[in-house]
Amino acid sequence: MGFAALQRVLLKRHEISCSVSYTMGAWRKRRLSATNGFQATKESSGMSKKHDNIKRRDFLKRTAGIAAGAAAFPYIVPSSALGLAGTVSPGNRITVGCIGLGGMGSGNMSGFLDRADAQVVAVCDVDSRHRRNAMMNVNRKYGNEDCAEYNDFRELLARDDIDAVSIAVPDHWHALVSVKAAQAGKDIYGEKPLAYNITEGRAVVDAVKRYGRVWQTGSWQRSQQHFRFGCELVRNGRIGKIHTVKVGLPNTNSIHEGSTSPCEPPEGFDYDMWLGPAPYAPYCEARCHWNFRWISDYAGGQLTDWAGHHI
Asked: Is residue 65 in some structural domain?
């Protein structure tokens, strides 16, 4: 079924359901870090950790004894496989699927690739160029060819071996992909804005709550050190009482040049899927990728693209 024929359908709260919070919910075995990505933490008491260490020590002793008695068949277990010497064992890594691999999506994926406690296992984008480039970058990073690629995000979400997803699709897709991810049991790092409009934003909130997922909004500027320092100055009264806040927007986030004449979509670009729940419009170069930000069918312009960081 083609998505372009669909009109936007407001998501019903009693059908979808969830709640947004940077700290709500818990991973099945891991928690979401407050940084750009995820940090694995073992949720166990000190007593259980001690018990686990004893069992591991006992296992290693027995393994060493067996190896000593069977020199003809040596077996070496890398420390990384056991999570020793500061490494993260494969069983404690958060497996991540990346949906949307344009500028922000690729940047977020790079953040996950740099973390020892996360592993990107799948990528998804309706533009085959973005998708293939991302897949090659992942495989190059890990030195294998294990990363899977998808055109349809629903196929990625259907995988049981994915713990969390990074969502960086055009704004008009935010709510639908996020709700589906929550329903599929995935924890979510979702790019700002939360959704295309308030109604859809509430649907995302309800879904995260209902399915007990962890959510973090990708409003990365609020985590930067100079913003945090400024907030602390204000909160501690170091610069006096604040009565006015002026927000400056960059003049470089302008509309990129591109033809406005209708034409056939480029080969490898699933324009029908890109439109998704938005009203149908013929393809033109100036409509998609970066420029979607300035078209009201897909986004809210500078107010939701940049000002949201500060306001």
From this structure: yes
Got the DSSP string for 250-306?
Answer: -SS-PPPP---S--PPPTTB-HHHHHTTSPP----TTTSGGGGGG-TTT--THIIII
Residue 52 lies in a domain: yes
Task: Report if residue 57 sits inside a domain.
Answer: yes
d(C-alpha 165, C-alpha 147), whole Å: 14
pTM of full prediction above 0.85: no
**Tens-place pLDDT, residues 104-136:** 999 999 999 999 999 999 999 999 999 999 999
Tokens at residue 202, please? 């509430």
Q: Cβ-count burial of 76 within 10 angstroms (0-12 exposed, 13-18 middle, 19+ buried)?
A: exposed
Q: Determine the Cα–Cα distance for residues 186 and 201; give it in Å rounded to an integer.
A: 18
Q: What are phi and psi of 195, to 5 degrees?
A: -160, 175
Query: One-letter amino acid identity for 261?
Result: S
8-state DSSP, 18: B
Which residue segment(s) compose the domain that 77 sits in?
46-82
Secondary structure letter of residue 155 according to DSSP: H
Under DSSP, the state recorded for 101 is -
Angle between helices 174-183 and 198-210 (to 10 degrees): 10
Question: CB of 175 within 8 A of CB of 196?
Answer: yes
> Which H helix or E strand runs over 187?
strand 187-191
Provide the token pair at 297. Answer: 């069918």
Overall domain count for the chain? 1
Residue the block writes with tokens 């409003």: 219
Q: Are 233 and 242 in contact (CB under 8 A)?
A: no
pLDDT value for 305: 83
- Distance, first Cα to last Cα, the chain: 39
For 119, the token pair is 């592993």
55 located within any domain: yes
Q: Which residues of the chain have pLDDT under 50?
A: 1-54, 59, 63, 66-75, 79
| Alpha carbons 147 and 93: distance in angstroms, whole number | 15
